[in-house]
Amino acid sequence: MKPRPAAVIAVASGKGGTGKTTVAAHLALASSALHATLLVDLDVEAPDSMGYFPGAVPVGTAVPVTVAVPRLDESSCTACGHCASVCRFGAVVAIGSVVTVDAKACKGCGRCVSACPSGALSETEMETGKTSLHRRGRLEILEGRMAIGDIRSVSVIEAAKREEGRLPVVVRIRDCPPGVSCPATHAIDGADFVILVAEPTAFSLHDLDAAVRLVRGRGVPSGVVVNKAGFGDADIEGFCSDRGIPVIGRVEFNASRAASGAAGALWEDDPAFMAEMGRVLSVTLDGRAEREGETR
Ligand code: SF4
Ligand code: SF4
């Protein structure tokens, strides 16, 4: 019998600073008490999940993520300009007899190399980031991290997703990039359920609206976790009700918890909070089981 694929839960948000990583880290912690669990930090521009697990032990060494970028042999180039005309990212420019390759803007699609009639372009690997794995008890933490100054976050996100698929766990929790741009889309694709973390403020609701539309557009089931419930004055429950998205968890605002969280402390000794994380986890996993039952 084929093993059941791991459940993939993406934790996302319409904007940064809503408590997304806090929820992802504690959800993973709650899950690891029951199942072999992987926390995947796909917020590769600013990965900070590991900040919650300073004692986690490295497993192996960091794995470089690379893309194949073109290298120009000027002596073979006839300045025909074909390479520049096929590049959709403006990473090769041909002006008169001068051809320039901007390797940092290159997405590694290989079109220019294939299009060059003179063999003047070859491929060379360029590092865009790294993935690294750590372990803490039954919890494994896979971090994707972009190279400093690089802009190709999607290459690192996709490399981390390939890596997560190789690890034999029961539950995978992804900490996704905030917002609704390309990196966020790549991070939620392939998830069984998306948890959107939002605060009850007008600003957060505006971005939550965009995130709901993104997730709906990808066809992934979703629910909202309200962080700092009782702190802001926006009617987040009414907003979710209007849009038909369930509120699946609430983290009440608590000043001392907020202060310790800002310092990177885990709230694993906070029974009310961990029970709420356990409930949110059950909702996501039960929903997956129900959907599987419906398609059987
Ligand atoms: S490999 Fe693709 S993205 Fe990179 S320079 Fe060539 S055509 Fe442009
Ligand atoms: S396609 Fe090849 S020969 Fe033509 S400009 Fe580009 S590198 Fe030079």
What does this structure look like?
- With 296 residues, this protein is of the alpha/beta class.
- The chain has two domains: 7-62 and 129-295, 3-Layer(aba) Sandwich (Rossmann fold); 74-119, Alpha-Beta Plaits, CATH 3.30.70.20.
- It has helices at 20-32, 82-86, 111-115, 153-166, 182-188, 202-218, 236-243, 255-262, 271-295; strands spanning 7-12, 37-41, 57-72, 92-95, 98-101, 121-136, 139-146, 171-175, 193-198, 222-229, 247-252.
- Strands 3-6-7-2-8-1-9-10-11 form a nine-stranded mixed sheet, with helices on both faces. A two-stranded antiparallel ribbon has the order 4-5.
- A hairpin with a 2-residue loop joins β6 (121-136) and β7.
- The structure holds iron/sulfur cluster (2 copies).
- One iron/sulfur cluster binds at residues 69-70, 86-87, 89, 91-92, 106-112.
Provide a compact summary of the structure.
The chain has 296 residues and is α/β, with parallel strands linked by helices. The chain has 2 domains: 7-62 and 129-295, Rossmann fold (3-Layer(aba) Sandwich); 74-119, Alpha-Beta Plaits, CATH 3.30.70. It contains 9 helices and 11 strands.
User: Count the strands?
Assistant: 11
Task: Trace the largest sheet across and list its strands.
Answer: 3-6-7-2-8-1-9-10-11
Count of domain modules: 2
* CATH fold-level name of the largest domain: Rossmann fold
Identify the quaternary structure here: single chain
The CATH homologous superfamily of the largest domain is called: P-loop containing nucleotide triphosphate hydrolases
Mean of all residue-level pLDDT scores: 91
Low-confidence stretches: none
Q: Judging by the overall fold, what is the CATH architecture of the largest domain?
A: 3-Layer(aba) Sandwich
Computed Rg: 22 Å
- The chain-level structural class is alpha/beta
CATH class of the largest domain equals Alpha Beta
Termini separation comes to: 16 Å
Order of helices and strands: EHEEHEEHEEHEHEHEHEHH
What is the count of helical runs? 9
Quote the beta fraction.
Answer: 25-35%
Main beta-sheet strand count, sense and barrel state:
9 strands, mixed
What is the 3D shape? elongated
- Distinct ligands: iron/sulfur cluster
